[in-house]
Amino acid sequence: MTEPMTRASEVLVNASIIINNDRNNTYGHVTVDYTRVRGIFRAITGIDLTLHQCLLFMASVKLARIRTNLDKNILHKDSLTDLIGYLALQAEISEPQ
To answer: Is the pLDDT confidence value at 96 over 80?
Structure first.
């Protein structure tokens, strides 16, 4: 008999599904997508971020939203899922070690 999935495991599995399927199908590979993001950010601010910094910025947006909601005693699993996805995508744009 299979044990039910924990809520933490559910968030991890959902993040994996999103970054491996939905995200690529909708936006393309992370390097292509965030090269565009990087160019738009540079055009608006004059600041040239790396792809890693772009993803960390997106993670910081999710952290801010999580903090805001925790102040209201609310936790949105979709924000956790997105945060984990942005952090995991760091590996996708990194050179293999």
So the answer is: no
